[in-house]
């Protein structure tokens, strides 16, 4: 089974670096899980398609109080992470994403 490559845009990379080391490890673990099946909700992985956006292919992964907003490029087998932030900030500006 081919896994997906996980790519973080510069903003998401910066958001990740600003978190505590424990939180970074939890998020990295969640991203590794996404590399196996980025669109499916499974035991221990809270993934849903984001509703109310102009882009129907955005997904979010919930990791505690944090949300990872991403989309999937099936042709390239890539998960492109747009945001890593708290729930309060996660959904602002989603309509502006590609």
Judging by the overall fold, what is the CATH architecture?
2-Layer Sandwich
Write the CATH homologous superfamily.
RelE-like
How many domains, as an integer?
1
C-alpha Rg (nearest Å): 12 Å
Instruction: Report, as a whole number of angstroms, the end-to-end distance.
Output: 28 Å
Within the CATH hierarchy, at the fold level, what is the topology? Answer: YaeB-like fold
Coarse shape: globular
Which structural class fits the helix and strand makeup?
alpha+beta
Q: Helical amount among residues, as a percent range?
A: 25-40%
Question: What would you say this structure looks like, in words?
Answer:
27% of the residues lie in helices and 32% in strands. The chain has three helices and five strands, in the order E-H-H-E-E-E-E-H. It has a five-stranded mixed β-sheet with strand order 1-5-4-3-2. The chain is globular. The relative contact order is 0.23.
